[in-house]
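ok here's the first one, seq then struct tokens
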Amino acid sequence: MAIERFQIHVSDEILDDLSYRLHRTRWPDQLEHAGWEYGTELSYLESLVTYWKDHYDWRAQESKLNRLSQFCCQIDGIDVHFVHEHGKGPNPLPLILTHGWPDSYLRYQKIIPLLTDPASYGGNPEDSFDVIVPSLPGFGFSGRPRHSGINNFHVSEMWAKLMTEDLGYQKFAAAGGDIGSGVTRYLAFNHPELLFGIHLTDIGIIRNLTTSSDDAKLTEEELQYKKSASEWIAQEGGYMSLQSTRPQTLAYGLADSPAGLAGWIIEKFRAWSDCKGNLQQSYSEEELITHVMIYWVTNTFGSSARMYYENSHSLPPLDYIEVPTGIALFPADILLPPKEWAVRNLNVTRWTQMPRGGHFTAMEEPELLAQDIREFYRPFREKKNY
């Protein structure tokens, strides 16, 4: 399938059905004086849903999203939606950015102009990038896989084909967070010859540390990580257990209730961001609802959740990654990795500890992230074979 232009246009029928459901939400009860410790707080979600049905304008957001240069092509039998914005500098470096869950390609909406056109934001035009932002298979406007096995490894192979066979780049840069971090690391491990370097904002949950039975072999920093990770999984990892084991069962409810879908997704934005418990400190209602809308209008919650199942059941192990790696850590992110472990398993050439920000880095602190990406890739621009 050739690359085709893509524009978002959600049917009136889908939007009318959404309005019908929002106006007829059946709310659960909540314990008196309970806050977010039991999950998404009732009064907050009621307020957000009221804004959603009475004030939120999808058509305005749709028009805004369609200002991005969007395309679609087929890779391994799956339709892949992606943004491709060309850089405005003298020799833009191609960069593929991979998102995670429960966000979408919108994770990078704010950072795209900072990377493609740094001169317009006080930067150096020689730091510009051609930015490619695909939607993961089963997420948003990409196609839903019809067979099992579409995990981080398989997606990395799809991205290699997208960048070289479909877009024609000989060599490129890659960055990501959450699932995007895993995809980027597999891309680097399997195709080091294609990459200048990789830039990560997290390393996910380091399973060989959390499951280690020999604490004597772990450093003090790694022991602290193991303790923190065990506590986090016990207190925060319920969503992960469900999506890794029974995503289909969960999908029935969240494909049927927009309020339920919002409750499932928004709780993660609050828990994983540097918002001090106040979502409005980091995000507008439009930002949050638009992320939920991407899942709702495409009915892709179930297919996105299956990515957790595939990654926990069919993902091959990773070995040492030789590709130069930059890591930018934001203090409120999930489980910051021990540097000792990182340097043993990746060729870490840049390690940045950011002053603020959380898991959704490109949404929360786009300027900080863009600057770190520019600085990490600057030495590679002397090589012009891209």
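and now the second one, same deal
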Amino acid sequence: MARIVALTPRKTPRQGRSRASVEAMLTAAAQILEVRGIAALTTNGVAERAGVSIGTLYQYFPNKETILAELVRRQKMQFFEDMFGAVQAAKAMDLRRATETVLQASIQHHARAPELSRELEKLEDMLDVDEEDICAGGGLVDRQIVELLESFGIAQPETAARDLSALCRGMVHAALADGECDLAAIEARLRPAVFGYLGLAPEGA
């Protein structure tokens, strides 16, 4: 599929009723993606499921790409929040427990809706969602992970953080893209790889 350049929403809802309508449309779109996949998503289908007119939908979302971009943006921001919380908690732990906590957060983020996460993962690289808040959120989490690794005496923490992020992201994305939704199985495969990279002994050793 060719790269999609997504537009930003036409306007931001300010009144309670408008915000409720936008939330209903995004919820409807997420439900369609989760059950039927990307190919089934249309603006008419979203409007009908959300109980709004197509004219109301177009006031906020000029096309389905903007709806998808907003769903991806929200997922990314939720991921950053999950990771930030995990890193803060990990500061009071030893390296093994800290690693487990951050790894679990990176995986369990998808557990809220694994089928939806799988569909959104397919879209992330094709949608232009590099907005200021996303870049800031991602940068903050990256810095926190570098600092956490540095506090444990990990050599070249910036490189280690990048490598570990690529390792986890690559394995999770590949598994989801292949249709796998067993997050426990994905985590079980990731744990020895991450532990090995950090020089931690295998579990039970």
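notes on #2: The mean pLDDT is 85. The CA atoms of residues 48 and 54 lie 8 Å apart.
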